[in-house]
Amino acid sequence: MERVFITGMGVRSAVGNGLDAFWRSLMGGRSGVGRFEGDAGRGLQPYAAAAADLDPAEMPSKLLANRTDRVTQLSLLAVGQALRQAESSPEGRVPERSGVYWGTGAGGAGSTESAYREYYGAAAPRIPPLTVVMSMVNAAAGQISIEHALRGPLLAFSNACASAGQAIGEALFALRAGRADLLVAGGADAILYPGWVRAWQALGVLAPPDGEVAHACKPFDARRAGLVLGEAAAALVLETEQHARRRGARPLAELVGYGVNADAQHLSKPDLGGQVRAMQAALGDGGLRPDAIGYVNAHGTATATGDPVEVASLQEVFGGAVPWTSSTKALHGHTMGASGALELVAGVLALQHREIPPQWHTEQPIAGARLALPGAAAWPSGADAVLSNSFAFGGCNVSLVVRAL
Q1: What per-residue string of b and e applies to 278-300 under the rule 16 or more CB within 10 Å gives b?
Q2: What is the tens place of the pLDDT at every residue in 254-294?
Q3: Given the residues 148, 332, 334, 361, the one annotated as active site
Q4: Cβ atoms within 10 A of the Cβ of 33, count?
Q5: What average pLDDT is seen over the chain?
Q6: Nearest to residue 327, comparing CAs of 290, 295, 301, 366?
Q7: Is residue 243 annotated as a catalytic residue, yes or no?
Q8: Please, what are the domains in the chain?
């Protein structure tokens, strides 16, 4: 079976644009969470969110910036970083054997909301003519392929917060099957707009920005009060071993395992059995024993229901030897469709540095959690792999495993 290497990564997030800044934030506890003002007259209260730093002037051209949604802009910038690190140029790859597998939960959320606001709020609405192509779920994937001459397989995945993780896992399967030599995989979401936030507020799962707002997200803590919305894009360049070696690429890690399934139980309540099966499938796909895992980047949303189920599922998979665990969402928020990619990047960086990203903002761990609290966790001897979980609304569970080379 063809091995698959990660040769490049890129990140745009609330805690760093680029790998170095992102890693420093994860290890130093720099939070990207802040207070966003609401609109009490319309029922929107002040809420906590983690907004990525983005200046449209960073885009290759003003025309492209004007014709793309924020989610596509974040995507293009993250992909550009990843391809540069991989030193992958159009001359060094066969366009028809290079493609894009990209995830997003909401697509062009900003363009959608803007069009609705105009239509329902103006006497003579003028809807931007590019609203459809800016808001469609596959807009970012398509624009990535256009900008980088990637003419091979093009797939857009929209499976809530498992979207990017599933895009990466399915890209792994496609590369193993010989459908491509190189795939850009990852995902993005940008939903920090009043209508979208009000919908999440109505669901009753958002953390209130009380006290120290930067610490509003407390995964696996007895005081947790809900998730914090975030936005980000993260990209990975995946290549078959043969292709990477032929062009002299320098692999960062090996993507070895992918597990995916459905709970088939409930649209929003997590299921222990589904999570267990996803993790076991990823380990089995990679041919790894549980003790090979040195760190788990947990889904860990800081919700009342979700965190205890994930703790129980980890105990089921790993028994009395649960690896050091943390949820980096405490810092960068829940980035929805981007989270599987963003958090896998965190896992690869942990492998490279042989350090465990701490669990920030958690002071009263819930029973059974083996959290990598600041200053308490060292990389375990003999472990050479990382597990990353994404468990989505709709009942989709995704687990990914990366291994050091």
Answers
A1: bbbbbbebbebebebbbbbbbbb
A2: 999 999 999 999 999 999 999 999 999 999 999 999 999 99
A3: 334
A4: 28
A5: 96
A6: 301
A7: no
A8: 4-246 (3.40.47.10), 256-403 (3.40.47.10)
